[in-house]
Amino acid sequence: MPCTHFNCNPFEVGRTLTVNGVANADANFFHVAIGLSVENVVLQIDPRFNDGKVVLNTCQERKWGEHVVHEGGFPFQRGKEFKITVLFKREEFVVTLPDGAQITYPNRLGKEKYCLLTLNGDAEFKNIDMK
Questions:
Q1: Fewer Cβ in 10 A, N or C end of the chain?
Q2: Count of alpha carbons within 13 Å of 49, Cβ hemisphere only?
Q3: How many angstroms separate the CA atoms of 83 and 100, rounded?
């Protein structure tokens, strides 16, 4: 799937983003990224099927920071539906994975709103909702 960028309504403190989709039957990876621009991504959620890991990271001025690996197992399956939710708190994001596991990730760029959402990789993204 080609990379899709959305200039979205501002994703602000207190809002929740929900992304529903289906991983491709031969998926290697996909990602959901929230940021200011493609050079400044505050949160990238990157399920990696070949490694069986969910990796989170931040890119600031085109430089990736130290990634965080979810240690609670791999809750995605090739060819299956998934739902990811992201609650934006002032200092952090709370990411809920398909199995209900939650990951707290710091707001490394420190802004109170972000306007770019990027979806990329081996998945069909069915629904995006922001409340």
A1: C
A2: 17
A3: 10
3-state secondary structure of 99: coil
Q: What tokens does 87 get?
A: 């609650």
- Rounded CA-CA distance 50/125 in Å is 20
- pTM for the model stands at 0.91
Residue 11's nearest CA partner among 122, 126, 112 is 112
Dihedral (CA of 112, 110, 58, 16) sign: negative
Find out whether 89 and 40 touch, Cβ atoms under 8 Å. no
- Are 48 and 29 in contact by the 8 Å Cβ rule? The answer is yes
